[in-house]
Write a structure and sequence with these properties.
By secondary structure, the chain is of the alpha+beta class. The chain contains twelve helices and nine strands. It has helices at residues 21-40, 50-58, 117-122, 145-157, 170-184, 199-212, 228-232, 238-256, 260-308, 342-347, 350-360, 368-373, and strands spanning 82-89, 98-106, 124-128, 131-138, 163-167, 217-221, 330-331, 362-364, 381-383.
């Protein structure tokens, strides 16, 4: 839902808060419409955000109903007799998507070809001198243009008599013809519909075709949004162009069944989401730019430091190493010997030599006076044996 629009001085820097008077009035107006529509369906919006609330608003609140068409023994005609189209508004934000399905029957008169029971249950209709339009909205939590095209195909199949569907959706036409070829050969569609995109409607389409008769249904692709140039090049015919244009113009009728207020709310939420997305893109760019600026400043600082140290003498001063007098040194006090660890000696015989070396050392412990008078290090000064070398013995140390 929209945030509280009562702006105070402390809220002046809050991102997403409407600051101008016109923006505040617009937010209040959108909130009032949103709440009015949600209260009409008795939706519980406590703790929900705008996305969750709108998905409650657009989903169907009726029990799923799958009416089947009557049986037809006539084969599908060679010429197209019905044009279908689907409409999907705000496709870039799936939770705002609003769909509509439409069919256009040219030269159909209800006095001669009345509506079937499934057509009446699935869609609304308007009759014109040139034909009949049927349209319905497509609800649910998500959707796509293919889903609306498929729904329009189901409405077309629900009519009395054979049907030859024309659609500008290659996805729908190719998938429908694949399923029709299986059904016409008497083969079962062994598809796990729950794992297929729009599987619920494809399952209904298959059942409707089986009830009507596979040989009574046919689907053909026609060029969408065709121009006179396409007709001249033979890509489509004038009749198919006009039929698809009428079906396309009927597309918005199905979406308008949601009501003007729902469409207004969807448009406002879509615009707000677009602004937020643009803001986040700019923010990401600024973060990246700030990082590169930071790295460049560090590089400049390091270059200046290197230049300032170029003529500085970096050589280390010589410090004479001092040894303690022999009178001050004494041997280390051992409380044990390595010879007690026979298994360890067998694995590492050099441990005996290490102990011999340690026992031969004369050391002077570091003192505070020592540290203050000599180099700045903790010194443990050693006095080696008189010959200056450590003797190595293979036997027991003495």
């Amino acid at each position: 839902m929209q945030p509280n629009v009562n702006v105070t001085t402390s809220d002046a820097g809050v991102i997403g808060q409407p600051h101008t008077v016109s923006a505040q009035h617009k937010a209040k107006w959108a909130n009032s419409i949103f709440k009015e529509e949600l209260s009409a369906i008795h939706a519980n919006i406590d703790g929900t955000n705008a996305r969750q609330s709108f998905m409650m608003l657009k989903q169907s609140h009726e029990d799923p109903h799958m009416p089947m068409p009557d049986k037809c023994d006539q084969p599908a005609p060679d010429s197209i007799n019905v044009f279908t189209d689907g409409s999907w508004k705000f496709p870039l934000k799936y939770f705002l998507g609003l769909g509509g399905a439409e069919t256009w029957w040219p030269q159909r008169q209800l006095s001669e070809h009345p509506l079937s029971t499934p057509e009446i249950e699935l869609a609304f209709h308007t009759e014109h001198t040139a034909g009949v339009r049927l349209f319905t909205r497509i609800g649910g939590f998500s959707g796509s243009s293919t889903r609306t095209e498929l729904a329009a195909g189901i409405v077309a199949v629900s009519a009395h008599g054979p049907v030859h569907i024309a659609s500008d959706s290659r996805v729908f036409v190719d998938s429908a013809n694949h399923l029709l070829s299986l059904l016409k050969r008497g083969r079962e569609c062994k598809v796990k519909w729950k794992l297929v995109s729009d599987g619920d409607l494809w399952q209904h389409f298959v059942k409707a075709v089986e009830a009507k008769g596979p040989h009574s249904v046919r689907a053909t692709w026609v060029k969408g949004h065709a121009s006179d140039a396409h007709v001249a090049k033979g890509i489509t015919t004038q009749a198919n162009k006009e039929g698809n244009d009428i079906a396309d113009s009927t597309a918005d009728l199905g979406v308008e069944l949601y009501g003007g207020n729902v469409l207004k709310v969807a448009k406002l939420l879509y615009a707000r989401h677009q602004k937020y997305q643009a803001f986040m893109i700019d923010l990401s760019k600024h973060i990246v730019e700030a990082y590169f600026i930071h790295r460049e400043l560090i590089r400049i600082s390091e270059a200046k430091l290197q230049l300032s140290l170029k003529h500085v003498d970096k050589s280390a001063g010589y410090t004479h190493l001092q040894y303690a007098a022999s009178a001050q040194a004494k041997h280390l006090a051992f409380t044990s010997t390595i010879n007690r660890y026979g298994k360890l000696i067998r694995c590492t015989p050099n441990l005996i030599n290490i102990e011999i070396t340690l026992r031969a050392l004369n050391v002077v412990p570091s003192t505070a006076d020592c540290l203050s008078s000599g180099p700045h290090m903790a010194r443990a000064l050693c006095a080696l044996p008189p010959n200056g070398q450590t003797q190595t013995h293979r036997g027991r140390p003495h």
